[in-house]
Amino acid sequence: LLTAISIERCLSVLCPIWCRSHRPKHLSAIISGLLWGLSLLLNTLGYVLCTVRPSARSCRLLLITIGALDFLFCTPLMLLFSLTLFLRVKCSSQHLRTGRLFTVIMLTVLFFLIFAVPLSVLILFDFLGYKFLYSPEIGFVLSCVNSSLNPIIYFLVGSYRDRRIKFTLRLAFQRAFED
Predict the structure, then answer these.
(1) Which residues form the G-protein coupled receptors family 1 profile domain (predicted)?
(2) pLDDT score at 41
């Protein structure tokens, strides 16, 4: 989903006229649904092949495919479009207003790279047969920290401009996404 959000946000900044006039109205919902469906399919296959009817070869192949899809396709695309968006906004002579949503996306991508990517890389290398001095528990803790940071990012970005701390969580989310 971070990859899809990064691509969509980048296209809306680089090609705003095309996005307003030619982009299908429900494209975001369709892409999100397809991504959730793909995730459900891969996780269901993983559950069946690795738990219900264990097949070492099929399970290993599926997990390598998921790791490669994550690390070799989604992460580079997310980085490419996020970096393009960042450079376009920061280096523009038009001084585009960055806004809260831009801040939320950049912080989310940054923390994803710091906390979630190492787990994906190490799991992929582990399934390819490369062993490192690594504890899976550390990777899972980092991944949990990444997931836990997202609501905090939304809250802090949503309440940043007003120094009062008496905001509700709903108001913070509303402000974070008002762009």
Answers:
(1) 1-154
(2) 92
